[in-house]
Amino acid sequence: MDICILQLGTFGDMILTTPVISLLKQRFPDSRIFFICGNRNHIVIRYHPGVYKILRWNKFPATLLRNIAWLRFHEFDFYVDPKDHYSFEGQMIAKIVRSKLKIGLNQKSFNFHISIQSESENLNLHFTERVLRTLKPLGIVWEYEFIPLPELYYSEENKKYYEAFLLENNLEPNGYLVFNISASHPRKTFSDHSLRHIFSNVDFNLPIVLTFEPKDTIKALDLKNKYKFLNLFFSRSILDIFPIVENSFAVVTPDTSIVHIASAYSKPTLAFYSGLDSFFKKFHPNNPFCVVVRAEKGDPGIQSINTGSFISSINSFLKTILEVL
Predict the structure, then answer these.
(1) Res. 325: pLDDT tops 70
(2) What is the C-alpha radius of gyration for the chain, rounded to an integer number of angstroms?
(3) Helical residues (DSSP H) of 145-253, grouped into ranges
């Protein structure tokens, strides 16, 4: 039995989709699970043992034609597009895919045999719950109160890169705190002013590993120049982030995919979120060990959280985890 899942979203979307893989394998042990992924997010499941094949969807003419030809030649038993709002690209792929049963949102068109609930019907559900809902026609019903955690895998080479970093910086597993300074938009992360005050006024009592996206490299280097105690982790891809978070003592981060990576490993986390309620319901941390500080209602970022609140919440978080753990 061949099952195909479409997931063209962000790193976070793919991370929060991973629980469906083991559920599908439990329900259909002999199945082959295919994914149609975006040109970036495919790496999240590159080493997942439950994934049989990944098709990277991009718009380069040669690759696009090759993908279309492969999808027209191959026939799946089940095809699932869990996106609960209209996507022109998703609808076009649904037309191309050959499958005995197609599950997705029939909105503005009727490309699916079974239509899933729309976003308006899913408003109170977490992203992972929304994806799980689409598996009901396959006989998979999640009946537990908790939401399943992400399932993340990385390579032996990622592990060696992480171990070399620890050795170079004289760090021990579970003996450092990950402090992430990057997010999808500047308004969703700490201002330069706040970062300077945080690192000047918080007594971390733990070595700090600073994580950041390539776009924030200059900012990270500037912080390192001012605060010598910071250990900069230059990740080559998101796969390098998995072991550094997995083996951390705790994590401090704005809302970004690292929140969900920390959830996968049940790491104590302090996460700063926007004041958008609908977004928070959809992407809140699925982690019983996560403390959330939110911006003022309606704030699409975290800029309404003042520097004093950042410092006090970090101090409180550190005091709690150091006392408890």
Answers:
(1) no
(2) 21
(3) 156-168, 192-201, 217-226, 238-246
26-84: pLDDT as tens digits: 999 999 999 999 999 999 999 999 999 999 998 888 889 999 999 999 999 999 999 99
Contacts of 127 (CB under 8 A, 6+ apart): 13, 16, 282, 283
Rounded to an integer, the average pLDDT of 214-221 is: 97
Alpha-carbon distance values, 156 to 22, 47, 53, 178, 243 (Å): 22, 10, 20, 21, 10
119: pLDDT strictly greater than 90:
yes
Query: What is the spatial distance between Cα 191 and Cα 240, in angstroms, rounded to a whole number?
Result: 25
- Residue 269: CATH number of its domain: 3.40.50.2000
The verdict on residue 146 lying in a domain is: no
Q: What are phi and psi of 94, to 5 degrees?
A: -60, -35
CA distance 97 to 99: 6
Domain hosting residue 33, numbered range: 2-138
- Does residue 311 share a domain with residue 176? yes
Same domain for 134 and 100:
yes
